Amino acid sequence: MLSLIKDVKGTTNGLGKVKKHRKMLCLFVMLAFTCLVWQKASALDKLLYQESASVFVGGSVSLRGYISEEFLELNYNEDYNAADAGYSIAYGWNDENPEPGCAALDSDGTVTALAAGSVKVDITFTYNDIEQTEVFTVEICEPEQINIAYGESSTLKAAQIYDTGKYMYTSSDESIVVNGDGSVTAHGFNSAQVYASVDDGKKIEVAQVNVASPSFITESLTRAAGAPAYTPEITGYTPLEGDEAVKWKFADETIAAVTDGGIAALAPGETEMTAVIRPEKGDNIKLTTKIIVTNPVISESDIVIAEDITKEITIDGLSETSVIDWNIGISSEGCAYFKKEGKLYANAMGEDTVTINVDGKDINCYVTVTDPYFDEDGITTYKGASDDIVIEGIDESVSTVTFKSKKKAIADVDEYGTIEAKKAGNTVIVANADGRKIKIPVEVAPLKGYKASQKAISISNTKTKYSQAKRMSKGYYDCSSLIWRIYSQYGVYFGVNSGWAPTAAEIAKWCTNNGKKIYDKAVSSDKLLPGDLIFFSYTKNGRYKNISHVEIYTGQDMDVSASSSNNRVIHYEYSQNNSIVMIARPTK
Asked: DSSP letter at 29?
C-alpha cells in the first residue's frame, strides 16, 4: 500500500494516470474497512454458548453468564463496557410470553423464578448498524416429588442444575440424608424437604422426599406347623448397614415363636405378631398383624393310580388364607405330576414322588402308576356257570380293583371278580382298577347255544372244505349242513332228525314256526348271544324270505360260517348289514 502511495506522488505521466491510482487506493481502503466490519459481524454468530437453562421456583438465573466467552474475548477487553465498545445488550420477553406470570426479568438479564413454567427471553446485541437477536429459554421447576422407602436412595434432579461441588444441599429432617453424589437416602421414616443454597446464600427448595410407611405384605400371615422357620417380608423397609435387627414378639408363644432361623410356626391356632423396627434416625415403628398356623394334611399320601388317569387330591387342615403351591407341570417327564390345581395326572408306569407346598411346608405324595387291562375281548358263558375276571398290569400289593355288574339279574360279580351267570342275556361288568374303568362285555347264553357256538369254533380250527355235494361227509360242509350237524348233537334238529340236512331257508322257517325267531333284521352284536343263527338273503330264490345263507354267532362280535368263497369253515367278525333278513335263537 505504501509503495502504491509513493508511486502516486512521484508520477508525472499525466493526470489520467494519477486519477487511476487514486481510484485503486480508495478501493483498497474500502476493502480493508469491510473486512474489519465483517470480522465483527461474524462474531455475532457465537453470541450464546447455551440456549436454555433450568431453575427452581425461588431461584434466579443470570442470562449474562451464557454469553460466549469467545465472543467477549474477541470484542471486549477485561474492563468491559458496552457503551465504550460501541455495543449494547438488551433483554426482553419474547413475543410468545410478553408478560409471563411465572418469572420476573430485570435490565441486567436476571430471570427470577416465581412459579413453575417456561419462559423465553429475547437477547439482542447491537453494534453500529448490525443487530442480532437470539432466544433463551428458562424452564422453571417445582420442587421434585420423591417417593422412597427406608434404606432406598434416589438421585436429585436438582443435582443436574446446581452442581454439588459448588452448592450446599440440606434436609429439613435428619431422616433424609443428602449424599455427596447428589442423591438422597432414607435413614428414617419422616418425610423432609431438600434445599440447595445458591450463590446469594438463599435456600431454594428443590425436592419433597416422602418416605413410605413399612407394612406386612398381607393383612395376616399363614404358616403351616412344622414349616421351616422364616422371616416375614416387610415392604417399605430395607435395613441399612449397622441397623439393629427387627425384633419380633408373639402374644402366644406356644403357637409361634422366634428361633435362630427366624419365625417358627409351632402349633395350629392364631396369635398376634408384632415387629419392632429400629431405624437409624427417628422413633421405633411397631407393625402388628395376625399369624395363622395351620396343620395341612393330604387326603392320600400313598397313591396308586392307573396310567393316563387324573386323580383329585384334597388337603385338609387349611385356613381361608392358606396358600398351596401344587408345583404344576414340575417333573412332567416323570411318572406323575400336577396338571392343574389338585389334579394329579398319571403319566407313565412306575413310582414317583410329587411335592405340594402348603403354607410354606412341603408335603410329599408317593405315587405308584399302574397300567391295568383285561386281556380278552369279553366273557362268553352260559347260565349257571361261573368265571373269574383277571385284571393284568396292576401291582397286587397296593392296587385296588372293584367290580360291578350293570345287570345283576343276568350276571353278578363279587369283590374278587368272580362272575355268576344267572340267566341268558347281555350285560357289562365294570372293573375299576386304580381309577381306570375297564368295561368287560359278558354274554350269557343258553347252555345248548353256548355248546353249539363252542363246537362251531372248534370246527373252524380244523381242516375243512366247502361242498354242497359232500355236505354231509366228514370234513365237508355247506352253511346249513354245518348248523344242522352241530345242533343235532344237542338235540335240536330243525324238523329233520336224520339224513340230509335242511337248507338255510328251511331252518329259518322252522325257527319261525316254533317261536325261535328274535329279529327280522340285522342288530348290533350286544343284542346277540352265542348260538344265535343269522340268516342272509342275497337274491330272490323263491325260498322262505329268499334266504340263501346261514351263520352261527359265537360271541364277542364273531360268527362261524361255511364259506364257499374261502372253501372252508371260517371264524370271522360279525357284520351288521342289510343282507341279514332274520335272526333266531334255537334254544330259546
From this structure: H
Q: Where are the domains of the chain?
A: 2-44, 47-141, 144-211, 215-294, 297-370, 373-445, 447-584
Q: Are the beta carbons of 124 and 112 closer than 8 angstroms?
A: no
- Rounded Cα distance, 511 and 186, in Å: 103
**Phi, psi dihedrals of residue 159, rounded to the nearest 5°:** -65, -20
What gap in Å lies between CA 91 and CA 135, rounded to an integer? 10
Q: Does the 47-141 domain belong in CATH 3.40.50.1240?
A: no
Structural class in CATH, domain 373-445: mainly beta
15 backbone dihedrals φ, ψ, rounded to 5°: -65, -35
Kind of pairing between the strands at 234-235 and 220-224: unpaired
Order the strands of the 247-250 sheet from edge to edge: 220-224, 285-294, 269-277, 247-250
Sign, CA torsion 360/366/371/373: negative
Q: What is the pTM of this model?
A: 0.69
Q: What is the pLDDT of residues 542-556, one digit of tens each?
A: 999 999 999 999 999
Write out the three cell numbers for 44. 455475532
Do the beta carbons of residue 383 and residue 447 sit within 8 Å?
yes
Res. 45: pLDDT tops 80: no
Pairing of strands 117-127, 183-186: unpaired
H helices of 44-182, in order, are 69-75, 82-85
pLDDT digit string, tens, across residues 465-505? 999 999 999 999 999 999 999 999 999 999 999 889 999 99
Among the four given CATH numbers 3.40.1350.10, 3.50.50.60, 2.60.40.1080, 3.10.20.340, the one describing domain 215-294: 2.60.40.1080
How crowded is residue 515: how many other Cβ atoms within 10 Å of its Cβ? 10
Q: What angle do CA 369, 371, 376 make, to 5 degrees?
A: 165
> What average pLDDT does the structure give for the chain?
90
In whole angstroms, give the CA distance from residue 81 to residue 321. Answer: 80
Q: Which residues contact 1 (CB under 8 A, 6 or more apart)?
A: 25, 28
Q: Above 60 in pLDDT, residue 19?
A: no
Half-sphere exposure of 512 (CA within 13 A, CB side): 15
What CATH architecture does domain 447-584 belong to? Alpha-Beta Complex (3.90)
Q: Which helix (H) or strand (E) holds 457?
A: helix 447-460
Strands (E), 389-434: 391-392, 401-405, 411-413, 418-421, 425-433
C-alpha cell of residue 231: 422371616
